[in-house]
TrEMBL record:
<dbReference type="GO" id="GO:0003977">
    <property type="term" value="F:UDP-N-acetylglucosamine diphosphorylase activity"/>
</dbReference>
<comment type="pathway">
    <text>Nucleotide-sugar biosynthesis; UDP-N-acetyl-alpha-D-glucosamine biosynthesis; N-acetyl-alpha-D-glucosamine 1-phosphate from alpha-D-glucosamine 6-phosphate (route II): step 2/2.</text>
</comment>
<comment type="function">
    <text>Catalyzes the last two sequential reactions in the de novo biosynthetic pathway for UDP-N-acetylglucosamine (UDP-GlcNAc). The C-terminal domain catalyzes the transfer of acetyl group from acetyl coenzyme A to glucosamine-1-phosphate (GlcN-1-P) to produce N-acetylglucosamine-1-phosphate (GlcNAc-1-P), which is converted into UDP-GlcNAc by the transfer of uridine 5-monophosphate (from uridine 5-triphosphate), a reaction catalyzed by the N-terminal domain.</text>
</comment>
<feature type="binding site">
    <location>
        <position position="371"/>
    </location>
    <ligand>
        <name>acetyl-CoA</name>
    </ligand>
</feature>
<dbReference type="GO" id="GO:0016020">
    <property type="term" value="C:membrane"/>
</dbReference>
<feature type="binding site">
    <location>
        <position position="324"/>
    </location>
    <ligand>
        <name>UDP-N-acetyl-alpha-D-glucosamine</name>
    </ligand>
</feature>
<keyword id="KW-0677">Repeat</keyword>
<feature type="binding site">
    <location>
        <position position="357"/>
    </location>
    <ligand>
        <name>UDP-N-acetyl-alpha-D-glucosamine</name>
    </ligand>
</feature>
<feature type="binding site">
    <location>
        <position position="165"/>
    </location>
    <ligand>
        <name>UDP-N-acetyl-alpha-D-glucosamine</name>
    </ligand>
</feature>
<dbReference type="GO" id="GO:0071555">
    <property type="term" value="P:cell wall organization"/>
</dbReference>
<dbReference type="GO" id="GO:0019134">
    <property type="term" value="F:glucosamine-1-phosphate N-acetyltransferase activity"/>
</dbReference>
<feature type="binding site">
    <location>
        <position position="98"/>
    </location>
    <ligand>
        <name>Mg(2+)</name>
    </ligand>
</feature>
<feature type="domain" description="Mannose-1-phosphate guanyltransferase C-terminal">
    <location>
        <begin position="251"/>
        <end position="345"/>
    </location>
</feature>
<dbReference type="Pfam" id="PF12804">
    <property type="entry name" value="NTP_transf_3"/>
</dbReference>
<dbReference type="GO" id="GO:0009245">
    <property type="term" value="P:lipid A biosynthetic process"/>
</dbReference>
<keyword id="KW-0961">Cell wall biogenesis/degradation</keyword>
<comment type="subunit">
    <text>Homotrimer.</text>
</comment>
Amino acid sequence: MKVLILAAGLGKRMKSKYPKVMHKILEKELVNWVIDTAKELNPTEIGVVLGYKGELVEKILPEGIKIYYQKEQLGTGHAVMSAEEFLNDEDILILYGDTPLITASTLSKLIDKHKNTNADATILTAILDNPAGYGRIVKDENGKFINIVEDADASEEEKKIKEINSGFVIFKGDKLKNALKELKPNNNQGEYYLTDVPKMLENVETYVLEDFSEALGINNRIQLANAEKILRKRILENLMLNGVTITDPDTVYIGPDVKIGQDTIIYPMTFIYGKTEIGEDCEIGPMTRINNCQIGNNVKILRSECEDAILKDNVSVGPYSRLRTGTVLNEKVKIGNYVETKKTIVGKGSKAQHLTYLGDATIGEDVNIGAGTITCNYDGKNKHKTFIGDRVFVGSNTALVAPVKIENDVLIGAGSTITEDIPEGSLALGRARQVTKENWVFNKREKGE
């Protein structure tokens, strides 16, 4: 079986300069929600039909996706025609790039019905109490499929039909190819409708959708927000059923690709996105944002931001820390309030507890970084590295001017500016000598100065 995703539309009602399928839910583009669902079905290939500003959509698609272009917007049937070379004798499932709510479970049931009945096409339908606006599924008295009639073209009798077309359909590939050759734009819009294909086939089946919300498409930003509520609820409930505590689901946002271990607690106002993996027995939040991070077991992150970072077991972060791309915190590292790291590896048991910037640095084990320490890694043109060995004590308010290397067991006095390498076991001081003038203030006052 192949999957073809139609994603060529402009999406006028989004009121956006970007294609509709590029808009995001939980930091993932609509079309990529559909692609990831399609991948769960293990198809032989996935194709996407692009149109309006398709070159922008191409940039966000994963590798291995076949791409086709619908140069003119002439209907869903024309979109499938644009991918003619993608069609062969395999079954082909038609999906839509603006329908992120559809589930692999529902599509699997549709596919099973298609195979078990040896149908030429199987349409995913739904029963609605108020079907106004949707195409009706017309059947004969024996329940055999006859046609799909659009709401605008339906007779008064046909409008009473409650079974509607969701748009999702699976075809036998050869039957679809042949039918497309006969498809005509016989409508007021002059478009080629894919819904006209089933009536050209002999054996058409339907599978009734259990939850119609799965078929909802995104046409404006209100619908985008409503879809996010549904998807967010699904994700959070699945995590909670698998042993994750989420203390306030109303304020927690977790992306679809995030993995979290048992007995981890997620506190309010926490946002976790991307390919993040979090281990067991962690405490995350409140007021924390994490993206594309690998986090071990028994890690605590409080009111902080972490991006493209690796945190190993028993690490403590925050409050108000910022871990930037390339940060690696080894076991039992403590990163405290108002500390920022970037492209920095911190060794086991080391600490930077207060008001510190560590950039382009490699730090050994059991190092203490005093409050106010900074690595001066940028000279205005190039970035330079700082190397700190094991068991180093860096005094408060120290500036380490890179490139610089500090060997093991060094002690750096508070307030130092370090510009040269320091050998093992040394005491280093890099500050001006203190000068004290006794009674200077009193003398000035007596003179009225």
